[in-house]
Give the backbone structure.
Amino acid sequence: MIFCFSGNGNTRCIAGHLSQMLGHELIELRGKWLTDTGSCRIDIPHGEDVIWMFPVYSWGVPPAVRDFIRDIKLQADADTCHHMVVTMGDDSGLTDKMWRKLMAGRGWTSASAQGVIMPNTYTLMKGFDVDNPDVARHKLHQAMNALPSVADTIRSRKCVTSIHRGSFAWIKSRIIYPWFVKYAVTPHKFHAHDCIGCGRCVQVCPMDNITLNDSAPYSPTWGDRCAICLGCYNVCSRHAIEYSSATADKGQYHYIPDLAD
Ligand SMILES: Cc1cc2nc3c(=O)[nH]c(=O)nc-3n(C[C@H](O)[C@H](O)[C@H](O)COP(=O)(O)O)c2cc1C
Ligand code: SF4
Ligand code: SF4
């Protein structure tokens, strides 16, 4: 069983491939899975492992995924192993350790923890922007090439960690990540201009957090339930969405299959 959280399509893309390679069902973590986790229950098929797939957020586990892991009712064999495959623009910090701790907190056995570098989606801080198209294309090719080995590692059920933690991992994950969770996961800085009412931001939002009025002038409204995935910002073909002034002059990236060809 694969659980996949993805705001901009990178993680969803490789989760789809791994689902085919491993013959595991893929559940996309969005909508009720995230907003009403307490009422959800999942039976893991006999003999199957669980694979957790999500993007790295601020060198840690996205808070929406962390909460899902803590709250979901899971029925599985006693010897079921849990694996992690994250996607990230550059480096993961100590995300693997954070995830192993979450697994241990549920009494689950964590096996492999792997990271795949993919195009960056983060634009909210000074100095951070999406990759230029050539870099994005290169990262996608590398990611696709890495998948057979990622699948083999999962099949081996070994407790291995294969991930690029990067420099200053402790500071990034233990100091900056808690700050990010406390202060940066807020939708109240989103606003839109020149909206044409296409509804793509509403559809892409994994938290069902955006509403749109049904006649011109169109203007999306953000509720309180945001995973800060930036799916809404990145998917808007008009580049109509901004996050305070942080995204002025920043680019957009959303996975489209053609890029990986
Ligand atoms: C809020 C946020 C924080 C991020 N933090 C990191 C990070 O700490 N390290 C990193 O390498 N990439 C970071 N990224 C980039 C994403 O992890 C990466 O682009 C990922 O592949 C996006 O996956 P998705 O398309 O499934 O949403 C961040 C992206 C967002 C939206
Ligand atoms: S994606 Fe952009 S143009 Fe479409 S409804 Fe949302 S803000 Fe408006
Ligand atoms: S409001 Fe935007 S950033 Fe927040 S969860 Fe929805 S799509 Fe992601």
